[in-house]
Write a structure and sequence with these properties.
- The chain is 43% helix and 16% strand.
- It is α/β, with parallel strands linked by helices and 368 residues long.
- The chain folds into two domains: 189 residues, Rossmann fold (3-Layer(aba) Sandwich); 142 residues, N-(1-d-carboxylethyl)-l-norvaline Dehydrogenase, domain 2, CATH 1.10.1040.10.
- Strand 3 and strand 4 form a beta hairpin.
Length: 368
Amino acid sequence: MNIAIIGAGCGGQAIAGYLASKGNKVNLYNRSIERIQPLLNKKEIELQGEIQSKGKLNLVTTDISKAVRETELIMVVTTATGHYDIATALAPHLQDEQIIVLNPGRTFGSLEFMNALLERGLDTDVTLAEANTLIYATRIIRPGLSDVKGIKNSVSLSVIPNHRTSHVVSILNENYPQFYGAKSFLTTSLGNIGAVFHPTITLLNREKIIKKETFDFYREGATRKVVDYMELVDNERRTLARTFGVNVQSIREWLCERYNLPDSDLFDALHNNPFYAGLASPTTFDMRYLTEDIPTGLVPFSELSKSVKVDTDYIDDLINKASMELKVDFRNQGRNLNRLGLSANTIFEDLRRVFELETIRDYKASAG
């Protein structure tokens, strides 16, 4: 396949290197030149850890039009806060039958991405998917060398238009058998467990982070008290999902399944997951555990809950704490209903229209 990888961070380089090593023609795009400068000449990514391979890239570029030209699959591997800007940049260069996959979408990534494409006047028939999580736990040792610490056993995937789900899954399964189809983007989006893990551990270890004390994020940071609070946040997420007829796993169930861990309580699952061992804590609040997981995770949870009168006291508490620490109005800047093209008064009807789309281009017409 001809594949474009959008984003040369930890996940992007690992996915690009792996797909290239499997014989695909891979283009790697990054907005800034600094991260990909060392790759411009060599055009090779080596993987170590759980994957031992090398992949030769076809193209390394900061020109998004060149990156996606004549490609069949576009894998967007950026922070979710960049989805809107990526969609805006991509819209003029897309071609019929291209498949775009958000790795991951976080909460309602595909919905925000679709609205951004349509705002830019999308006139091609593309397919848009969001993965529930990033398939790898990975870190960059240096540009061109990625350490893959873990590989998810399974990754759910939702697709807009929904009727193309099996087609997209079959395409991805040629290289990644872990992907399987979800019922809709409600399943993948309300299954966003990163929004529960990351902000809770970060904000409830406030004093350590202020003092810039380093600690093992998941083992020392996830104390019994923190884990208890995390489960309260998770209960609100699952109550919201049930209100919309969606059955999502608890964070304990998700963790044990994705990392093939023995069945246990959440505290033990976090502390015994070998892939989480040694992951260092942040030393600042200005990092993606808050700047990404609050606006693209907890904010849409809270906003959707308010539309159906589901209480989210613990979720709202985390949003307020993060907003105060960083002096940012996350609720206004995040994926609120207006940004997602939804209305509290017609929320079920709005979502039904998305589920029933024949093509993405039909969405504005159906709204009329």
